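Q: What changes when alpha-D-glucopyranose is included in the input?
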Amino acid sequence: MSWWREGVLYQVYVRSFADANGDGHGDLEGVRSKLDYLEWLGVDGVWLTPIHPSPNHDWGYDVANFYGVHADYGTLDDLDALVADAKRRGIAIVLDLVPNHTSSEHEWFRDPAKRDWYVWTDEPNNWRSTFGGSAWTFDPDVGRYYLHNFLPEQPDLNWWNEEVRAEFDRILRFWFDRGIAGFRIDVAHGIVKDRELRNNPRLSRGDVRTERTYNMNRPEVHDLFRRWRRLGDAYEPPRLWIGETWVSDVAELARYYGANDELHLAMNFPFTLGPFRAPALRGIVEAAERAYTADAWPVWCGSNHDIVRFPTRWSRGDEAKIRCALLVLLTLRGTPILYYGDELGLEQVPIPKDEQLDRAHSRDGARTPMPWGPRSDGEWWIRHGDLTRNVEQMRDDPRSTLSFTRELLALRSAAPALQSGSYATVAAGPGVWAWRRGDSALVAVNLSDRRRIVRGVEGTIRLDTRQERNGEAVSGRLELEPWAGAIVA
Ligand code: GLC
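A: The predicted holo structure follows.
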């Protein structure tokens, strides 16, 4: 048992969540003012996207001081107040750790005594930045090239340097001592680079594109996770490690759990970016079930701040499909992470070209303000989308997506089988995905345009995606309308 295994996590994009002082972007006081809501929804932990001082070339993922709070978001005192208030409600606060790189405005990067904290070369290899172009930029002051797997304003740290490791131990303890419950590790798979900076192999002969063999997913990164796990385990309760692990192979992903001595949760992007079809998603879940050791605990998300929100990407705005996705995310074996707005079925917002702020490729549409009410609550740093799906109006409507999500969370926390029961696929017709959780619960979802029947199901419907069959007895056959699902227990 641990709070995060049975619990549900909620990702807050701080800049867009709640603005307490009306200056056009979210802040920590805003998050605190919404704890009532988060408690009512039933979440157990909140992951805050980076809150540190940053010139915002990559909206906080370019950290200029790992020990501070960005003035836009408040102060350390505000954070302490948030942590304390959340704790009283049984909600843990998880921060975002960005150890792969710093901001080019971080004092370390300008300090000649800390040159070796970054990765330098005289002859750039063929590594490409994730955001496009060469991963190397010439620094005229130093007379050498530095590595940046992301923007040139995000120089990569040199994790072969023990001083860097020791400094991050200090950073981690600084936050853990303040009651931070854990970290989501940014670019977890990419932190340690090939020591010899070897060229990446080309995808194929004559292709300029390359594999990411030597700048990502190196075996030595696992030493670092073991070190951090030991450090976090010395706290009570042990601190949580969630990895942003972009690897395409589920067996590879399993390695990030180590022998229960590395990450607690390694994000499964093959699932998140998979097509919303029964055979595809079921196949990924089954592969994870096979590849993971008994202690490794899966984690499931549909949306985040880097990708198109799932109500658009998976469900094309169709309410029935949005609910099917929520049902899947919240009832698989593992910890779900809801991205703010998922509980409303919030869609990706089209952002006109001249309003785009993201320098990578536009991820702005997944980062729009949380719709608290039917009208825009002031000028935000980024536009609102359609406000039809909003908390104020959906909260009191028992048939809204929000109420459905809340019921799902409540059912989860009342049913040990849904929290910790094993996963086993149940044979079902084409387009249907059905599974047992432990001995007492069955979930079935019909991801097809035809009515389907799942056989061999006994029990009572505890929740269905249309919220019209609760309490219905099932003996032998569970009928499902197109794009509908149910939990039977
Ligand atoms: C991660 C973050 C993303 C950021 C990148 C560089 O992928 O989720 O938002 O741009 O790392 O820090």
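Observations recorded in class: The chain is about 25% helix and 15% strand.
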